[in-house]
Amino acid sequence: MHLFIAPVINLKGAEKLLGTVREDQRVVTVSPEISLLEDTGPVCSYELTPEAAATDGDSVPFAVDVTDKQTGAAVVRVKDGSSLDCAVAVYRLRLKAVRCDDADAKSEGVSLEIAVKDTNDHAPEFDQPWYTVEVDEGG
């Protein structure tokens, strides 16, 4: 009989994972980086769900791609076909690691808070690349 321990997400002393992404980007910068405590892997996937306290019913527009099964390293990205708008400034999510050889062996959920940063959708447009003006300083 084999006993498998559930994976444990390593918060490296933090209370939660914090992510930031500009609304025109696809990859979320997460701090601390997603990883597991040593010898609690391998993981083949992560589950991402809304926090229980989340008030909006929107689906989660993010996915998590495992980049190293043993360490649990992963990248959070905007799902294909999804787009972000800073009208939803913060997503409060729960992240769980799923063990490769036992889909029922999941980590405890940890908080992942992703802030969406605004980009200037309405940059000024000019007819010429530069303008020259003279100002009389009343000397």
UniProtKB/TrEMBL annotation:
GO terms for biological process: homophilic cell adhesion via plasma membrane adhesion molecules; positive regulation of synapse assembly; positive regulation of synaptic transmission. GO terms for molecular function: calcium ion binding. The keyword Oxidoreductase does not apply. The keyword Calcium applies. Keywords: Calcium, Membrane. Its main location: membrane. InterPro entries: Cadherin-like_dom (IPR002126), Cadherin_CS (IPR020894). This is Cadherin domain-containing protein. It comes from Plectus sambesii.
